């Protein structure tokens, strides 16, 4: 044992005295307390080497008590650590403060050290001296930041960069955003019940346009934005896109509240299930709003049904124009709309005009001709024939054996 490294292999000594660890711990602790008392009385004549000895003795005593699961001994160490840290703070000995913290490794009980270091702009000193492999330190730092300085984005970034914790920090921001949303929805449900509205019967939660609601939604947007940034730094592009989509969805929710009077209500677009999405995009939202919604939920709509509802039954001309800015009007979609149109036995001029408007925008000539013929849109058929499409139609729709 002559070549043993006390700071790294002290556990080997403890293995030799399995039933005497606490006894050894008490002796070391007593000596550390005596040395520290002498340094306190020495005032300006203190020796930093003696204080360094106190720190190492307390760490060693703590190891003894930990090996023996002696909670009373551990408690006495933690109490003494607080006194020693206070003394070291007056001396501004950041090195010994950090050594004591990372040596004892009771980060939850010694959160006050994080606060001391942050207040004195020495947080980066802790990161330099702390081991990158110390998982307990990583988790303790993240927990501290989340609890005591959630808005200090730069500090989160420094810790994430040091420990390569981009994904973990991003997940913290996402969970925080989800928690804010869950609480807001729970409060909104209670408000609905107070107004004699049963959320389950209504089908959707209603958000009230108040300062509190807007504050929560803005907080959630900010948290998802931070999550997106950290996912990007961790090169998790897919997760970054998902976080960004959630931020866009909440921004859409905020926009729905903007035009309302105080205490007015808007449908909640957050935490929806699939059965709630389809009615919203078919009747309540514009196309651009619908696109934000379906992207956030990775939902694939039946666009033919949506276009039939919005553009034909509701005569929403702007909807199909916005749709075509992002999605192609395919033959399959046009055929589905046509079947729905025929099944509904529609004859009103307004709805006929809306259907004709959709067909005009269909790129496929032969599908356009066939559907126009089926629906009896003679003027549209004549336009195709007289518009220079006659030869093409002869080679496709009119060709013997052709099946559209």
UniProtKB/TrEMBL annotation:
InterPro entries reported in the protein's UniProt record: Spatacsin, Spatacsin_C_dom
Pfam hit, one: Spatacsin_C
Coiled-coil stretches noted in the UniProt entry, renumbered to this chain: none
Domain of life: Eukaryota
The Spatacsin C-terminal domain, residue ranges: 23-342
PANTHER family the record matches: SPATACSIN
Descriptive protein name: Spatacsin C-terminal domain-containing protein
Organism per entry: Molorchus minor
